[in-house]
Write a structure and sequence with these properties.
Elements: H1 2-26, H2 64-80, H3 88-109, H4 113-133, E1 155-159, E2 162-167, E3 177-179, E4 182-184, E5 187-189, E6 192-194, H5 201-205
Length: about 210
């Protein structure tokens, strides 16, 4: 009887072990799902700031006074660097330039900068005329005077009921005297080279 009970217990134990083994073999390990990765975010490339043009400080911008002083100084330098060498036409041109230089300095001192600049430029035209008479380089171009100018090589101009030969170029013995142009007795007289310095009565009568 004891052997029978023992055999039954072994059979039951074996059956329980088989069932347990089958249950364990059929169980699946849980799979951990990875968390969803966020989509990559597009990052814009850095934009370089626009190039900035440096502003010119107000102190460096030339004003009317600075411009007038520059022209007056240029006229003074032109007068200091030339010798008439006894030539009558050159002497007259430099005398006219010197007269404008003094007038321009007076206008500058009085705060009339526009007038000072205009007078100084006119004086430089006379310096230019003297250089041409002396056979020197006339120098750089000058701003227009705003007065009429002779354009023909040979012409005639009537001033104060007198007729003068005039030309757009210097010709020794024919039109040696330079006049910058202006208004005489309410009439505009063109600038150019004249046969006589009618604007200087003392020399014209000589």
């Amino acid at each position: 009887m004891g052997y029978v009970v023992l055999a039954l217990l072994l059979i039951v134990g074996a059956a329980v072990a088989v069932v347990a083994q089958r249950r364990q073999g059929g169980r699946r390990e849980p799979v951990l799902e990875s968390a969803a990765q966020p989509a990559p975010v597009a990052v814009a490339a850095p934009v370089a700031p626009p190039a900035l043009t440096p502003a010119v400080p107000p102190a460096l911008v030339p004003g009317p006074r600075t411009e007038a002083e520059r022209w007056v100084e240029r006229l003074g330098a032109g007068l200091a660097g030339i010798d008439a060498a006894g030539d009558g036409a050159a002497v007259l041109a430099l005398a006219d330039a010197t007269e404008r230089y003094r007038a321009a300095k007076g206008e500058l001192a009085g705060g009339r900068y526009g007038s000072a600049e205009a007078v100084a430029v006119e004086g430089l035209y006379y310096v230019r005329g003297a250089r041409v008479v002396l056979g020197l380089d006339p120098g750089p171009a000058l701003p227009a005077l705003g007065t009429p100018a002779v354009t023909a090589r040979d012409g005639r101009v009537i001033v104060a009921d007198r007729t003068y030969t005039v030309s757009n170029r210097w010709r020794g013995g024919v039109t040696p005297y330079y006049y910058a142009g202006g208004v005489v007795d309410g009439r505009r007289v063109p600038g150019g080279w004249y046969s006589s310095p009618w604007w200087n009565p003392a020399l014209a009568a000589a």
